[in-house]
Backbone:
């Protein structure tokens, strides 16, 4: 069996998908059987040292991919093509697996451009028509696909993600260096994510405003790290309106290499998102030993299990109360740290790779 995985999304434009593809490609070769072969399609030299990497012309946003990728697949005599994004060749000409992460452009159109709102449903339908099998990263996304796109359950496998191996508890000197480098306070609650509306930062700011003047929160600051989209200034505006500019710190994007120490130094990780296809930051925070408060919506309960305090993300007072519980109770924070670490080890890229390889084998048998 010759498997070809499309890694053209391993670029800074697709940080989450890039991590998924890179970790899958690292985990697959050690578990493949004799006679099974893996080739990577790439646009750049990212995988130049990979055993079999083939460069193709035409990125995910290019019309050129519609003939360049099928031509490469024919030349490779592939048996399985795994498209890791819905922007793909829609006539690949062989057994095809498609990974779908979420349906945000349909379910939360306010989070994307008008062009994406219009194109996504149409292009997703083309991708689903081309695919013989679909992988979703959560049961939530599977149910959304069945309900919104009419995909039969029998064509979908749920295969969860996992934290990158570098997300582990960090030594205190490493955390201290990052704290000094970024000018972070000794005690901080952390949220990692963009400022798009479904990330729900405005309510998080309002909840922080409720607790910031309480004795429990007197020494704490709220740190928000992630890409800032200038189309959505509401979180900063709310911070200023509530007079919280000294209690809330917007870091912007943080280097990937610094994330483990950023998570590890947090006394509390909070993730109030209204919708996630998986919610990998929750699992990354847990793997680094951070106690977690997160939303009870969409896929997040699947990921968090009983290792986080789950809250209604639309209820500002409930969100504030959950954070206050952890800020005020060191023993509870320690208990949640241990739960978080135990939960994180249930997810691994070896497990994800084994489940994915089973899909490849099934559609070629």
Residues:
């Amino acid at each position: 069996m010759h498997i070809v995985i499309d890694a053209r999304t391993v670029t800074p434009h697709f940080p989450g998908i890039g991590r998924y593809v890179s970790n899958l490609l690292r985990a697959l070769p050690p578990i493949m059987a004799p006679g099974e072969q893996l080739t990577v399609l790439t646009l750049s030299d990212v995988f130049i040292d990979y055993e079999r990497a083939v460069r193709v012309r035409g990125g995910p946003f290019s019309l050129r991919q519609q003939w360049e990728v099928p031509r490469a697949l024919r030349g490779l005599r592939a048996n399985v093509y795994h498209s890791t994004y819905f922007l793909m060749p829609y006539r690949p000409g062989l057994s095809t697996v498609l990974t779908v992460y979420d349906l945000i452009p349909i379910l939360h159109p306010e989070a994307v451009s008008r062009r994406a709102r219009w194109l996504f449903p149409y292009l997703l339908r083309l991708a689903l028509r081309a695919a013989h099998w679909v992988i979703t990263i959560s049961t939530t996304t599977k149910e959304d696909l069945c309900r919104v796109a009419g995909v039969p359950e029998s064509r979908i496998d749920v295969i969860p993600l996992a934290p990158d191996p570098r997300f582990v508890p960090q030594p205190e000197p490493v955390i201290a260096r990052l704290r000094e480098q970024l000018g972070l306070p000794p005690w901080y609650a952390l949220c990692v994510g963009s400022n798009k509306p479904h990330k729900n930062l405005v309510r998080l700011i309002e909840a922080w405003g409720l607790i910031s003047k309480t004795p429990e929160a007197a020494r704490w600051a709220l740190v928000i790290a992630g890409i800032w989209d200038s189309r959505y200034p509401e979180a900063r505006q709310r911070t200023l309106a509530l007079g919280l500019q000294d209690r809330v710190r917007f870091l912007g994007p943080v280097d990937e290499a610094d994330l483990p120490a950023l998570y590890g130094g947090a006394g509390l990780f909070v993730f109030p998102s209204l919708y996630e296809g998986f919610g990998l930051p929750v699992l990354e925070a847990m793997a680094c030993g951070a106690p977690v408060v997160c939303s009870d919506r969409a896929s997040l309960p699947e990921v968090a299990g009983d290792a986080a305090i789950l809250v209604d993300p639309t209820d500002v007072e409930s969100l504030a109360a959950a954070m206050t519980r952890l800020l005020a109770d060191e023993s509870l924070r320690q208990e949640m740290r241990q739960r978080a670490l135990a939960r994180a080890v249930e997810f691994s890229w070896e497990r994800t790779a084994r489940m994915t390889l089973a899909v490849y084998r099934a559609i070629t048998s």
